[in-house]
Amino acid sequence: MLVKDFTYHLPDGLIARQPPEKRDGSRLMLLDRSSGSISEDMFSNLQAYLRPGDLLVMNDTRVIPARLFGRKSTGGRVEIFLLRRLDGSEECWECLLRSSKRFRERQEILLESGMTAVVRSRSVSENWVLEFACTEPFDVWLEREGHIPLPPYLQRDDCSSDRERYQTVIAREPGAVAAPTAGLHFTREMLDRLAVNGIETVFLTLHTGLGTFLPVRVERVQEHQIHTERYVVTLETAEAVNRTKAAGGRVIAVGTTSARTLEYSARHSGSVVAGSGEADIYIYPGYRFNVVDALITNFHLPESTLLMLVSALAGREFVLEAYREAVSRGFRFYSYGDAMFIY
User: Fold this and answer.
1) Distance between CA atoms of residues 141 and 162, nearest Å
2) How do residues 100-120 score in pLDDT, each as one tens digit?
3) N or C: where does the chain have the smaller number of CB atoms within 10 Å of the terminal CB?
4) Among 301, 267, 317, which Cα is nearest to 287's?
5) Which residues, in sequence order, are CB contacts of 103 under 8 Å at separation 6+?
6) Residue 253: is it exposed, middle or buried by C-beta count within 10 angstroms (0-12/13-18/19+)?
7) pTM score
8) 8 A C-beta contact, residue 211 and residue 226
């Protein structure tokens, strides 16, 4: 397969640069795999397409304010993008650095409110390792001074409302640098209503990394090297998923992050296994799903690994037909855009 086989035309005006007024106020495109039909509704009516015994699996990762701005001692401006905290350290992070001039080891960067960062070394993946120092705990400082890392295709700086709207209502485990955007459509009231009607929700954690934004730079799909992301699947979630499968219920992944985590945890046995670590599963057409029966997702970038995953579940031609239909109907695309339910 060629990467260019997963492209489509998107007018710039259909990129949703702001969230909808209400979380569940987005439109919902419905893809029925058995009949090949494409229809639409409002996300607030999702319950009409679910049934008792279904299990929703949501990613409870929390986006950290990973963008920082500072200056070198010489006065040059610096942008820092936090990637991940290094194991065993509260203050050392793997980061991306941007400045008009090159960095060197032991160079100091001055940040807001007395925080400093010292360039320590290169990481294994050729990013930078920074050590932060301040009179207050780093996480406290970060929550106050950091900026929400909005996707570059939004073409705007973050604002105060993004701190709430670029998080799901169930976000509780900090570590992601991108939101699991399918979950942005849910409200607590909706989840409560679903529970009353016999539709259970369980949680796992996948800390979405920078690789979500990186373009696929190879010609053939199979040649792409997928990024790794930290994940946790609890025993409670694993048991609920396996119990649902055994009872004939549907396991519905809320977002590609949940889908990847479920499939990774079941890669050896075919059943979900509790555990944690680094997930590096790469799903594209030809993959056979072991766990996921249905998927709630947003509309993804052309030629992206996320579009390939969706195509693996529903078929490339069917998905691209749906995307063309979404464009013609004026659906809103990407992180703050409308949703799709593939079942």
Assistant:
1) 18
2) 888 888 899 999 999 999 999
3) N
4) 267
5) 97, 119, 128
6) buried
7) 0.94
8) yes
